[in-house]
Input
Amino acid sequence: MSSDRIHIMHVVRHGLAAGGMENGIINVANGLPSDHFRVSVCALDSSETFSKFIRSPDAQYHLLPKAGGGIDWRLIGHFRRLLRSAQVDVLHSHNWGTFLYAVLAAKWAGVPIIHGEHGKNDAELRERNRPKFWAKRILGRRVDSVLTVSQTIATEWADYGVPKDRIQCIPNGVDTVRFHPDSDPLPYRRRLGLPERGLLFGSVGRFDPVKNYGVLIAAFAQVSRDFPDAHLAFLGDGPCEAELKKEAENLGVADRVCWLGRRSDPENFLLALDLFVLPSKSEGMSNVVLEAMACGAPVVCSDLPSHYEVFEPGREGVTVAPCTAENLAGVLVALANDTPRRMALGDAARQKVVERFSIARMIADYARLYAAYGQPR
Output
């Protein structure tokens, strides 16, 4: 193990690779120059880490289970000992679930800490948690750098009192070779067992309340009246799956909604679609929107500030405000009836991603950030 490489440890709340944040960590870990950096992952639970997705042969994986439902103060001491024994040069924590433990352990161990914020879940959107507010306000100033994926989140952390020169924004990036356009969706539909004829709407994501997929199913039920051969497909899984399937049954479209579960080839799914739809209540910066754009798919999203940082509405994608079933259905019907516009949106989206959101740019930005704080031990 070379001593002149910077050791970056990522800490996550859960160790499963189940969403955009985890895939972003994997992309960065696999893209960093191996002669300058080595990587480890620590999960604050007792499940697996995403070890099989990181290619480095000397990457390390740690499980540090949090005990109980409240704050596990003993975990901070365990974490401090791990940071020292593993000789971590920079700790990179991710989202609120790791924040308290990572900041306190890193400061106790004398390890520089970068805290990454990727977005909020549904509970965080609803809550008014004063202890959490004050924890972010007080401990946020002790972090060496707060790293966000969008300017929207950066502004939020500035409002907590974190000095602006300690807040950095590195937008997500996408592999534009892996995610590329193809004019013929038929081979991809056949590969995935999807309907070969008719319009295909679809989305990729965790079945969580924040994704607002019930609105998409309700909108599709309205769209299907005008397009009886259209279908809706989902790639993903999650706690709301049974509820969403029941909603499709209640609306009479269960036989026209396809559930593919989790797969490791989202690019094939995106190339099968006529329209990609994401009606989320909140997003930091959606990886899957970037991936859909890279595939040349026209994207329709809820009207969120973070989406405006990714595409220009009306030129490279379409936003819906407010994102009700009726409004979303109206947009989907209009696009379903306008093939030239769908093609123009997809072409412009692909160009935008290639120019502004390449994975090479993202990895170079992370490498510079880590090098600024890390000194090999």
